[in-house]
Design goal:
Blueprint lengths: L1 H32 L15
């Protein structure tokens, strides 16, 4: 009975770690694929 509880606990911990790693990878990928346009002030050149 004790080994069965330990096995279930180990599987639950392993599953939680895998879920966390997968969620972290998805967040990182979303951050890489988003495109942002950086706005810069333009210098106006006066002629004459």
């Amino acid at each position: 009975m004790k080994t069965k509880k330990n096995l279930v606990l180990a599987i639950a911990i392993f599953g939680g770690v895998l879920f966390t790693v997968q969620a972290t990878n998805l967040i990182d990928l979303d951050g890489q694929t988003t495109t942002q346009i950086e706005k810069k002030k333009r210098k106006l050149i006066k002629w004459g």
